Amino acid sequence: MNYTLSLFILLVLLLTPEPSFAALTPAAEAPVRHLDRAHVEQQLGRKLKFKERIGLSIIRGKAKRQARRAAKTAAGGSPVDGYAVASLVCGILGFFTFFTAIPALVLGIIALGRFNRDPQYRSGKGMAIAGVILGGLVLFAVLLIIGILAATWGRQ
């Protein structure tokens, strides 16, 4: 109960709007710096407990993601990665022609690698993941059918 109350007080202190934030642009990192452990401890007048530090790190991560999204939206968004789209299309086509399952996997993995290197300037990560999953399912189904046919052929 004591941890819950102190975490609630911490959240209220952190989420109360301050007039200094009104002039900041969405891409500014000042709100994230405001969530610094030393700054919060100074506001509270005591050291943070372990659970409070964990909660603070979660809140800081959410604030960083929100700032990145706001910056991306303010910049007009980013174009969808072509490899991700190609991966999804190849994954869907894999249900009709199993030859496109391997390109779906390869293109999806390349697109995910590009997202990991530069996540701020690309969108379409969901399409890349869907392409990898669809390509993997089609490839697994094809290999399973080949295995069943080989086992059946060997019995005759």
TrEMBL record:
The chain crosses the membrane at residues 82-115, 127-153. The keyword rRNA-binding does not apply. Keywords: Membrane, Signal, Transmembrane, Transmembrane helix. The keyword DNA-binding does not apply. Residues 1-22 form the signal peptide. Residues 83-144 form the DUF4190 domain. InterPro entries: DUF4190. This is DUF4190 domain-containing protein. It comes from Neolewinella agarilytica.
